[in-house]
């Protein structure tokens, strides 16, 4: 690719910044336009109460060599390997994840264990051919009882719809290789030689938070002559036939020109902002929608709370679905303070009451819920608190969503210089490694002119998380 071509990247999250970084290395003139004041998107890190935190739990691992190589190239030796401890909180008890036989036997009654095995046996007999929903898929894989215990409540909190309305694609992408048989085998014999990604016991973590990956990319992009423009929201994209013309307009009316546009903004907003668009496609795209996240951070006057990196909260009596303990990641982010910062995650749609709650109400609710679950001592105090709202961060896989997404994909493929990527841009529930891979491959496609089949990344047939972490040769 000629280095005199100009590329605009909308969004400075993992996918967009990786694409900009890879292109800048080849001498391409890159301008990144970011709607917020920082890089990293959902994977950013920031200082809070004298420590460093992330937007919930973000860990790095991948089975793809080119993704691992890029991580090492950017972060170098400035990371550590964290021993993962994540548990499920269900009926006032903690269940180790991955499963451990002794823990399961201790927490469940003989009747419950029998019910799990019986429902699994029945499912193996009757089976199901059309696994269209998340509920169908998980029930077929684990049995009805285990679905109700360890999948239903959390999933419905996250997505805001019942499990019989969640598409099976989500299960296929996230837990494709895991089954009750594998889980029990792992509980008895351990995970060696059979590591499903959700069972990975270690992950790489930069010493200044997960966002350090993207902060270092941003620094490199600037040194290589690229631009990163902050607090500029793209609202209009000028289109002429099968190309985005080389100008875009943000809310201030400023125009930017480029030969190629890489978009990581929410797919629905991209289509809405086009000056010329097939109205049928626009109407179809309105059926695609996102879930919002509200993060409530609480600083607790103790450095010895629960030992988990994060906990999945399956208790229906509270609204939050996951809680992160930043004390248990990397000591360098704690800045020698003897307090603990917890992050509680709440999910909602734009129209839901929770999304419009005041900071004060959210903080009060978060403290009440964490005390309800007895995750902090009665005598512990909340020293400081903060709220972060992240709109449109989870693409909702409602049953049949691909019937609406596929026409949009086919339509956008007709544009010769527009490339939607990333979790938001491609409407895929990506992990960091998926989005990084998209960024690497779009840069390669632009440079070589060869189609990299970006829309197939993170599908049920191409899951990046099926093996153990591969950082062979990297220093810890």
As a whole number of angstroms, the C-alpha radius of gyration is 23 Å
Query: Helix/strand/pairing class, anyone?
Result: alpha/beta
**In percent, how helical is the residue content?**
25-40%
User: Could you give a short account of the major beta sheet?
Assistant: 7 strands, mixed
Query: How many extended strands?
Result: 19
The number of helical runs is 16
Strand order of the largest sheet: 7-6-15-16-17-14-18
CATH superfamily of the largest domain: FAD/NAD(P)-binding domain
Residue-averaged pLDDT: 88
Shape: globular
Model regions low in confidence, pLDDT < 50 over at least 5 residues: 460-476
Termini distance? Answer: 36 Å
Q: How many domain units?
A: 3
Provide the CATH top-level class of the largest domain.
Answer: Alpha Beta
Question: What is the name of the CATH topology of the largest domain?
Answer: FAD/NAD(P)-binding domain
- Strand fraction equals 15-25%
CATH architecture of the largest domain: 3-Layer(bba) Sandwich
């Amino acid at each position: 690719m000629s280095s005199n071509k100009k590329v605009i990247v909308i969004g400075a999250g993992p996918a967009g910044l990786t694409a900009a970084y890879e292109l800048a290395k080849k001498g391409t003139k890159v301008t990144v336009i970011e709607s917020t004041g920082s890089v990293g998107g959902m994977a950013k890190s920031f200082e809070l109460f004298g420590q460093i935190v992330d937007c919930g739990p973000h860990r790095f691992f991948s089975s793809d060599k080119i993704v691992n190589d890029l991580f090492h190239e950017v972060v170098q030796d400035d990371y550590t390997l964290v021993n993962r401890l994540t548990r499920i909180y269900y009926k006032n008890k903690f269940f180790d994840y991955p499963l451990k036989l002794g823990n399961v036997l201790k927490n469940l009654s003989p009747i419950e264990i029998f019910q799990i095995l019986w429902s699994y046996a029945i499912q193996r007999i009757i089976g199901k051919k059309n696994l269209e929903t998340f509920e169908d898929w998980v029930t077929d894989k684990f049995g009805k009882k285990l679905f109700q215990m360890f999948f239903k409540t959390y999933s419905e909190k996250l997505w805001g719809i019942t499990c019989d309305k969640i598409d099976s694609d989500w299960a296929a992408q996230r837990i494709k290789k895991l089954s009750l048989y594998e889980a029990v085998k792992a509980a008895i014999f351990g995970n060696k030689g059979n590591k499903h990604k959700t069972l990975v016991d270690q992950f790489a973590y930069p010493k200044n938070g997960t966002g350090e990956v993207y902060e270092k990319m941003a620094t490199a992009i600037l040194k290589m002559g690229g631009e990163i423009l902050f607090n500029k929201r793209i609202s209009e994209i000028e289109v002429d036939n099968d190309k985005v013309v080389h100008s875009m307009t943000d809310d201030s009316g400023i125009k930017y020109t480029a030969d190629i546009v890489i978009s990581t903004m929410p797919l629905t907003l991209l289509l809405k902002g086009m000056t010329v668009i097939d109205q049928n496609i626009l109407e179809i795209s309105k059926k695609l929608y996102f879930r919002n996240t509200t993060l409530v951070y609480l600083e607790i006057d103790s450095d010895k709370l629960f030992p988990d990196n994060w906990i999945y909260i399956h208790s229906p009596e509270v609204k939050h679905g996951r809680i992160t303990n930043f004390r248990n990641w990397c000591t360098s982010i704690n800045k020698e303070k003897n307090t603990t910062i917890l992050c509680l995650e709440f999910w909602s749609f734009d129209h839901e009451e929770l999304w419009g709650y005041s900071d004060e109400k959210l903080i009060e609710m978060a403290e009440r819920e964490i005390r309800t679950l007895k995750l902090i001592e009665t005598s512990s105090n909340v020293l400081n608190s903060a709220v972060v709202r992240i709109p449109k961060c989870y693409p909702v896989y409602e049953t049949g969503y691909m019937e609406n997404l596929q026409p949009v994909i086919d339509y956008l493929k007709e544009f010769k210089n527009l490339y939607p990527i990333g979790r938001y841009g491609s409407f895929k529930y990506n992990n960091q490694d998926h989005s990084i891979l998209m960024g690497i491959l779009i840069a390669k496609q632009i440079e070589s002119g060869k189609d990299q089949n970006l829309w197939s990344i993170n599908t049920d047939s191409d899951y990046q998380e099926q093996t153990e972490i591969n950082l062979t040769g990297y220093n810890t």
